[in-house]
Amino acid sequence: VKLKTGRLNRDLAFSFGVSVGFISQIFVTWLFFLETELKLLFEISEQNDHALSAGIPKCFQRTPDLRAIIDCTELMLQKASNLNERKRTFSNYKNHDTVKFLVSLSPNLYVNYVSEAWGGRASDKHITLSSHELLNGLAPGSQVLADRGFTVSDELKTMGVQLILPSFK
User: Fold this and answer.
1) Quick one: which H or E segment has residue 55?
2) Where are the alpha helices (DSSP H) in the chain?
3) Mean pLDDT per segment of 10 residues, for the chain of length 169 residues?
4) Helix axes of 20-38 and 9-16: crossing angle, nearest 10 degrees
5) Quick check: 28 and 129 in contact, CB under 8 A?
6) Alpha helices of 72-121 — where are they, by DSSP H?
7) How many CB atoms lie within 10 A of CB 12?
8) Are β-strands 66-76 and 143-145 bridged in parallel, bridged antiparallel, or unpaired?
9) Which of 35, 148, 150, 155 has the greatest count of CB atoms below 10 A from its CB?
């Protein structure tokens, strides 16, 4: 219910007649379960795989070495009561408390990586460079597409990976 509707823990606790802490515990337990069970669906695959290359849109067919299309996304949070937590989660960009993730899509637009959650204050560069599973899955000669806000070109170049940034917004 929480994932589908985005309702607050307090609202769910009232609706189901349980404590807010119990709702939080159930939600976190299910998130860890889903992560474990769905992990195999989030893999970076070789593009020469026929099943993968069959569904690639025409705009990506000109880049046969493209392995990932990355961007960070933010989700709004309830304002934390702890000032240190509020400091970490406040996003100047959204002007609200947020949690931030790096999401990667394959060239045929399947999600192949979701990073751990970071406070809204974390930069896209920091989150990307901390996403070791994604970076380790990129072979030398691979290409990664990102928007102009990703300033990780030099770091990827040392791995033999090319960062493609569109010339338009």
Assistant:
1) none
2) 2-5, 9-16, 20-38, 50-54, 58-61, 83-89, 124-129, 132-136, 153-158
3) 87 94 93 81 57 69 88 88 87 87 89 90 93 92 90 94 83
4) 110
5) no
6) 83-89
7) 19
8) parallel
9) 150
Q: Are 70 and 146 in contact (CB under 8 A)?
A: yes
Cα dihedral across residues 55, 61, 64, 66: positive or negative: negative
Tokens 């849109």 identify what position? 57
**Residues sharing a CB contact under 8 Å with residue 162, sequence separation 6 or more, in sequence order:** 65, 142, 143, 144, 156
Torsion sign over Cα 75, 119, 26, 132? positive
Rounded Cα gap, residues 45 and 84, in angstroms = 39
Of 143, 130, 132, 145, give the one whose Cα is nearest residue 71.
145
Dist. CA 72–CA 68, nearest whole Å:
13
Asked if 98 and 74 count as a contact pair (C-beta separation under 8 A), the reply is yes
What is the pTM for the complete model shown?
Answer: 0.71
**CA neighbours closer than 13 Å in the CB half-sphere of residue 28:** 7
* Separation of first and last alpha carbons in the chain: 36
Query: For residue 98, which phi and psi values (nearest 5 degrees)?
Result: -140, 165
